[in-house]
Design goal:
The protein is of the alpha/beta class. About 30% of the residues lie in helices and about 20% in strands. The strands form two sheets. Strands 3-2-1-4-5-8 form a six-stranded parallel β-sheet, sandwiched between helices. A two-stranded antiparallel sheet has the order 6-7.
Amino acid sequence: MNSDGKPALLLIDIQKGLDDIDYYGGHRNNLQAESNARKILDFWRNHKFPIFHIKHNSTNPNSPLAKGRPGNQFKDIVEPLVNEKIIEKEVNSAFIGTDLKQQLDKLEIKKVVIVGLTTDHCVSSSTRMAGNLGYDTFLVADATATFDKVGADGTKYKAEMIHEVELASLHNEFAMVINTDDLFNIIKEAQQT
């Protein structure tokens, strides 16, 4: 991450409804994801870097993330400030059916840093698209998480494995996968050059 331009932070779907562990598979990995996302958010706020809060409005009326339900709200730990941009979406990618790309381009953003939920759904879809759109994309592994999943044949896959495999698929193909401390070090080094 070199020093030209400010990187934008995309906080993907850090919403209260994703605390409904039973609805989403019964087990979640990386319970520190939100606290790491908050550390990054604080860093971005302190440096006055651009921040975009992405909110998923599920079209499934039974989903905890359906618009109008309490679970649709952002988690308190990352509650947007008045001046921070909110992008609402109805599909997995933050770039589909929204003006996110136009807003990033208007600010001449070249680099995006992605955190949030869940690793293999909206985080992955948004990361892949950011990479395909030509953004220098960084995905923060310890600031994202996912849930157990059951495959088409009934096999249950653990959240930890899904998380790691998805990160491996994204790394050096669509994004650079790093941890929170790595991110801070990269930015500090860039500011010194």
